[in-house]
Amino acid sequence: MRAKILIVDDESAIRQMVCLALSQANYECLEAADTQQAQQKILADKPDVILLDWMLPGLSGLEYARLLRREKLTVHVPIIMLTARTEEEDKVKGLDSGADDYITKPFSTRELLSRIRAQLRRTAPHAVEAAVEVDGLALDPVTHRVNAGDKHLELGPTEFRLLHFFMTHPERVHSRERLLDGVWGNNVYVEVRTVDVHIRRLRKLLTPSGHERLIQTVRGAGYRFSTHH
Predict the structure, then answer these.
(1) 195 phi, psi to nearest 5 deg
(2) Architecture of domain 127-225
(3) pLDDT given for residue 187 in this prediction
(4) Fold of domain 4-123
(5) Are 45 and 73 in contact (CB under 8 A)?
(6) Residue % of the chain over a pLDDT of 90
(7) Which pLDDT tens digit goes with each residue over 188-200?
(8) Where in the chain is CATH 3.40.50.2300?
(9) How far apart, in whole angstroms, are the C-alpha atoms of residue 122 and residue 126?
(10) In sequence order, what are the residues at sequence separation of 6 or more whose Cβ sits closer than 8 angstroms to the Cβ of residue 136?
(11) Among 97, 115, 121, 170, which has the minimal tally of Cβ within 10 Å of its Cβ?
């Protein structure tokens, strides 16, 4: 099935350009000139990604992104902000409002398509991803199995996703917020401290094989998954 991409922009020339590129890339393109039209499209055909212009008549893209993040129907739908603003501060504002990515005008359709693909990959199930192995600890996203040496470990779904995130993003410090975003996505019900609980549980499951040492606490910053001490 083709992924549906909604473009919300009051400039018809931009909508036309984007829709042409999307249909050539085998995506279904939905168009809206303002947030009212966007809302109708979202209710009628739930899109897989929303491309949202920052400057819109009536409700701004920024305010609308906040609204979409609070709605149950769109809370998990990736939002890419389209904007002519290039300041770092504006980028932060856009991401703070609930956008997942940010692209500045004028942009190439090639860049836009690669950003869309990245968002679709992130929300897709892990089934297409390769197995990973670190220091004798092996995780297979397809079969949902984790092995420490020749011993099979039983992990709950959240611990599994957390370990998968760590193993695919090793050797860097992740804040609790970053882990929340990477593992839980935009789940509004999850508290930052929830991360600590799951880390504790994951460490406990990895203790018999000695792999709990791979999950390191970095005081004041977060956690790191590393084979170095």
Answers:
(1) -55, -45
(2) Orthogonal Bundle (1.10)
(3) 43
(4) Rossmann fold (3.40.50)
(5) no
(6) 45
(7) 445 676 778 778 8
(8) 4-123
(9) 9
(10) 148, 149, 209, 211
(11) 121
